[in-house]
Amino acid sequence: MFKNEEMEVNLGPQHPSTHGVLRVKLRLDGETIKHCTPVIGYLHRGVEKICENKTFFQGQVWTDRMDYCSAVANNLGWAEANEKLFGITVPRRAQYIRTMLNEFNRLASHLIWLATHALDIGAMTVFLYTFREREDILDINEAFCGSRLTTTALRIGGLREDLPPGFAKLVNKFLAKFPACLEEYENLLSENRIWKKRTVGVAKLNAEDAIALGVTGPVLRAAGVPYDIRKAFPYAAYAEMDFEVPTRTEADTYARYLVRLAEMRQSTRIIQQCMDGLPEGPVMAKIPKILRAEVNEVYHATEAPKGEIGYYLVGEKGSTNPYRFHVRAPGFINLQSLPKMVEGSLLADIVAAIGTLDIVLGEIDR
Amino acid sequence: MSDAPIPETTPETPSGPFVYDYTTAPNRQVVLPKTVPLPGYRTYVAEQKALVEAEEAKWQKQLADFDTAKAKAEAEGKDAPKAPVKAVAKKNDTDMVFPAPTEAKDPTLLHLVNGLGDKVEEAFEQAGELTCQVAKEHILEALRLCREDAQLKFEMLADETATHYPAAQGFAFSVVYHLTSIARKKRLRLRILVPEGFEPESATQVYPSANWMEREIWDMLGIRFANHPNMIRILCPEDWEGHALRKEYPVVGWGQRDIDFREDRGGMLNRIAMEKAGQLGINLKRPKAE
């Protein structure tokens, strides 16, 4: 019992705190993690291979099913990569609506993150509160495109349809209500002693390591690097939006929590600006019914809720399929930093670390 | 310990709607690509030149044909034939303009090209993206320069992936590195062309983030990287056969249980129709030939 021996422990692949089917091989010395190896691939469906055998338009439904918590963000990156490949100019109204839907999606994704992260660490109540607001966002999704989770909301060249009647009312109702809800979450967590004990100083990842490991998104911004693709390489209508990139310097789990909450505030600002400045005009560019590619390759990165999602496409002359379809999934790259975060810390902290990375195995394994 | 020979096992052919052998299954045949869609400025210019020349030759031939026909008609005292009209390019009425590759003009790209000298094979811009193709043996040098040069300063390797070109001569894969400079707000693509069996130097020696990306490339395309700390598969199990993103790999993989839905659905509908007809007392069965 009291032998001084290292022990191997498997966390997952069927552990509720691993957000799906992540398996982490741990070598423990007592309760201290000596070595940590994430094992992935349990949800590998070959999305890249499938999309290479589908037409340019058909790939979209697969992007929905990669990170199923942020389908619009995946759709947006995919649509813009295709538009870059073909050189399509998207109408301004479509850009605004895309931006708005993307921000709603960011809110929904962050709400799920907050719910499950708090649930993992032991704060049950927040889960019920955030899912209440998420339901409203899903209703907005449903009003726009008919589906709630896997939206397939966008099209190459713009949108399938304009906003439905009564959409503005839905959005305004949500915007009027949401800031108070954010305060509610903060009241529950920000000064909560147990929450702070479980998050402050836990799973640290400094800026240098984060950049070396390719980590992007809120995890990088919580380390003090103000890298947000919406600002650095503006896409959709973000160049015309007025918003801030929240950063913290503590680089721990608590800082990431604060960064994501601040991001939600900024998202509501962007949605408000999109609704106020929504230009008139068509929502779909004039493109042929069948897209035939020329020899070209593009890498287009956008800021998904979890970090940089990049699409690498190669076009073959005269072909209706992409010759190569590759996704740079933010979760895949961010998960590489898990050993760096948890090695040397306590076993219970790995649950906080996995939660704070905000991973979805559907996009990691693809 | 007996010396009896191990009996040879013969795989039984499964019955039913399941297809176990992809080689014989319908719609499972792999069609290998015939072209090499490797983007580049030089190839694009050559292609365009060839197109223009072909167009010009066609026009000259039309003119010559017209001249002979005219002379023939004059000699025979008939009406002169119609003069040929030069074909006008179709007007683009879509919102689509193909982003053609252009020569390298961006100062960042030119600085990199100068820094690498004759190790650069090609540098061009397309769709607002900078691409630099370097010799495959010197990729590590190029990555190091990109990271450490004060005027380049690409701190992050955002993505690394590869493409399979089975129809190409002299190489089989292109490996692309997408670098990001957070401080300078720039992106750059480095590209190497590697033949089958060649092991490029691992980018983990410069960018640690390449670790999982290169494992994914090994898993999906079968390119091994030299001096990689942990060159094992990442998404597929270690005993998996083949590399799924190669062009010769079928979409439905080995041992995949697969139903031919079209046949099955047809059979199902047929059975339902027979049943319904039977309830109504109608005989749909084809009378047997006597």
User: In what order do the strands lie side by side in the largest sheet of chain A?
Assistant: 1-2-3
**Average pLDDT number of chain A:** 89
User: Which value, in Å, is the CA radius of gyration of chain B?
Assistant: 30 Å
Instruction: Specify the structural class of chain A.
Output: alpha+beta
Count of the domains of chain B: 2
Hey, roughly how much beta strand do the residues of chain B contain?
Answer: 5-15%
The end-to-end distance of chain B, rounded to whole angstroms, is: 63 Å
Mean of the pLDDT scores of chain B?
80
Helicity range of chain A: 40-55%
Kindly report the CATH topology of chain A: Cytochrome-c3 Hydrogenase, chain B
- Superfamily (CATH H level) name of the largest domain in chain B: NADH:ubiquinone oxidoreductase Nqo5 subunit
What is the CATH architecture annotation of the largest domain in chain B?
2-Layer Sandwich
Give a quick account of the main beta sheet of chain B: strands, pairing sense, barrel closure: 6 strands, mixed
How would you briefly describe this protein structure?
Chain A is an alpha+beta fold and 366 residues long. Helix content of chain A is 47%, strand content 13%.
Structural commentary:
The complex is a heterodimer of chains A (366) and B (290). With 366 residues, chain A is an alpha+beta fold. Helices cover 47% and strands 13% of the residues of chain A. In chain A, the strands form 3 sheets. Chain A has a 3-stranded antiparallel sheet with strand order 1-2-3. In chain A, β7 and β8 (322-328) form a beta hairpin. In chain A, α4 (92-121) runs antiparallel to α5. Chain B has 290 residues and is of the alpha+beta class. In chain B, strands 1-2-3-6-5-4 form a 6-stranded mixed sheet. In chain B, a hairpin with a 4-residue loop joins β5 and β6. Chains A and B meet through α1, α3, β6, β7 and β8 of A and β4, β5 and α4 of B.
